[in-house]
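This part of the workshop introduces the protein records we will be handling. A record pairs a protein's sequence with a compact description of its fold. Comparing a sequence with its tokens is the quickest way to learn the format. The record below serves as our worked example for the rest of this section:
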Amino acid sequence: MTKRKSNEEWMLLAKDYRSSGLKLTVWCRERGISKSSFYPYLKKSKALAEPLEPKWGSITMPKHIETSSILLKVGTITLDIKCGFDKETLRDVLNVVMKLC
């Protein structure tokens, strides 16, 4: 007879899975865990682990935007966007930055 796992045990298993780098099917098979039993806890652990702030960066908006710039930080990349910027160029730059992060 197998012992029923506690919520804490399932959460530790979810953390182990996330750090393993394995596909869910492979990870579950290696540990003899039913994927259908594990998935609800995996989903719950992800919701608990998600930060309240965006993961990819922050935006600083100055009070007087018409005379100032916008400072956009994405990971280690900082963009200083001046008043009158070209929107298409910014869109292209952001697409590249988001692919890097």
About this structure: Residues 58-100 form one domain.
